[in-house]
């Protein structure tokens, strides 16, 4: 019979294997026992080490990468008092997709969000494509069960996760903490900051702790300057945040700090290299693995993407999204024996109707790929049963209706799709083609212009506009 591992070492092993719940529970048992003796060669006791490790485990449960591009919400657009130049210098604008120097993906190859950001392998708050990007779109968007909220409301909703992870209340009572005392212990202070900032979403106390720790470090620790910049950014004080990030860069040249300053450059090749560098440091980083896998899939390399998703499966990630991606990779890599079983497992693991809708939508694509259009029609219908504002499903159903000669049904479906997702070029282009076939040239031209605005590089749209202009010139 083997010896039982030391409890703290066991907890650290759970943490390294991303089993944060087991790590937290084991640390709780250690904290409930008598305080441990301090190791002769260590600065901290076992009790303090368990406290710090549990803090990190609770933080990782709800961690959201702040580097990601934030999509501007309605409240921010209305209440924003910052004045910026309306016209950018040529070649410097980052607002529109396709303006990057690094060869950003086109909507024809890889889906993009309303802000032009490519879909990645990791779902984050406020990065979904269904939310309105302008006030006009928000007013015209039909009401759904999901309210349109501001970014500040998102942080509040994320903060409720702290009550889920500990039914007895918060692990740390922030009102009773002496932050100045913790600021003098760098290792504990950093773990406490991450807990306050990510788990409790208490920016005020996080900023206070970061300021005290920076002062204790005599303003020589670049890490704390980055954290102060993150707090300023969360509070909307962008100029102050920029000063902190630049000051941190002078002390230590770090990729994360540069990304905080840039937020988004739409440079996919550089992003992939950065994610690979992340894996060299931490080969169990779920987000990096998922994003690299997604990038390979949209680069027409499903076999390589499949290896990354299988790695996630081996690490213990077991959810609907992973099996959904495995099913797609297997289908496009021509491993048909695993395709349907992966999608079946994804449907079984789906936790809500939106996840179920995604699986049925992808099954519809599989049906189109094997030529079973009746099955595809039913799959897209089931997509809308689970999520009635799924713009892509409306567009694909319209194409199937056009094949059957049902012009009016196709027209109605395309109008719905274009109103739900005005950033997609496909519904506008399909509506333009449909209108041109039935002789409604004015509507065709209007829709084609919207398609060109959504995707300036679409060749078929440009050809259609050219044909319509020639026809109008002959009149």
TrEMBL record:
Annotated spans, Disordered: 95-118
Gene3D superfamilies reported for this sequence: Tetratricopeptide repeat domain
Record CDD domains: TTC8_N (cd21341)
GO BP field: non-motile cilium assembly
Listed GO CC annotations: BBSome; ciliary basal body; non-motile cilium
Any Pfam family hit: TPR_8
Database matches in InterPro entries: BBS8 (IPR028796), TPR-like_helical_dom_sf (IPR011990), TPR_rpt (IPR019734)
Protein name: Uncharacterized protein
Species, as recorded: Melopsittacus undulatus (Budgerigar)
Biological classification of the source: Eukaryota, Metazoa, Chordata, Craniata, Vertebrata
Underlying gene: LOC101880706
């Amino acid at each position: 019979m083997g010896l039982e591992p030391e409890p703290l070492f066991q907890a650290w092993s759970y943490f390294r294997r991303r089993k944060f719940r087991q790590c937290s529970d084991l640390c709780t048992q250690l904290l409930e026992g008598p305080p441990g003796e301090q190791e002769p060669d260590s600065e901290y006791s076992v009790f303090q080490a368990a406290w710090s490790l549990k803090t990190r485990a609770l933080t990782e449960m709800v961690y959201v990468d702040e580097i990601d591009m934030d999509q501007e919400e309605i409240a921010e657009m209305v209440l924003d008092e910052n004045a910026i130049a309306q016209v950018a210098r040529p070649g410097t604008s980052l607002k529109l997709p396709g303006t990057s120097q690094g060869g950003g993906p086109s909507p024809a190859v890889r889906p993009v969000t309303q802000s032009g950001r490519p879909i990645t392998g990791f779902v984050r708050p406020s990065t979904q494509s269904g939310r309105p990007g302008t006030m006009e779109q928000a007013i015209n968007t039909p009401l759904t069960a999901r309210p349109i909220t501001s970014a500040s409301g998102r942080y509040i909703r994320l903060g409720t996760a702290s009550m889920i992870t500990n039914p007895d209340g918060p692990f740390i009572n922030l009102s009773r903490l002496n932050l100045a005392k913790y600021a003098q212990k760098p290792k504990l202070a950093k773990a406490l900051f991450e807990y306050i900032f990510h788990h409790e979403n208490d920016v005020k106390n996080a900023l206070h702790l970061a300021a005290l720790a920076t002062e204790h470090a005599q303003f020589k620790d670049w890490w704390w300057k980055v954290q102060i910049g993150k707090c300023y950014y969360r509070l909307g004080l962008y100029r102050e945040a920029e000063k902190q990030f630049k000051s941190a860069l002078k002390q230590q040249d770090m990729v994360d700090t540069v990304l905080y300053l840039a937020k988004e450059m739409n440079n996919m090749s550089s992003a992939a290299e950065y994610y690979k560098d992340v894996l060299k440091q931490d080969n169990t980083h779920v987000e990096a693995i998922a994003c690299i896998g997604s990038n390979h899939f949209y680069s027409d390399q499903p076999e390589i993407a499949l290896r990354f998703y299988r790695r996630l499966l081996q690490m213990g990630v077991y959810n609907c999204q992973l099996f959904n991606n495995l099913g797609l990779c297997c289908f496009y890599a021509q491993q048909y024996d695993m395709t349907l079983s992966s999608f079946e497992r994804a449907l079984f693991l789906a936790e809500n109707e939106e996840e179920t809708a995604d699986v049925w939508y992808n099954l519809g694509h599989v049906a189109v790929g094997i030529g079973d259009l009746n099955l595809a029609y039913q799959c897209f219908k089931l997509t809308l049963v689970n999520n009635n504002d799924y713009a892509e499903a409306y567009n694909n159903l319209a194409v199937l209706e056009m094949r059957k000669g049902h012009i009016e049904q196709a027209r109605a479906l395309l109008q719905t799709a274009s109103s739900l997702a005005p950033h997609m070029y496909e519904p506008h282009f399909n509506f333009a083609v449909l209108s041109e076939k039935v002789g409604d040239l004015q509507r065709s031209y209007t829709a084609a212009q919207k398609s060109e605005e959504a995707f300036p590089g679409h060749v078929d749209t440009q050809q259609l506009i050219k044909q319509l202009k020639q026809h109008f010139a002959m009149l």
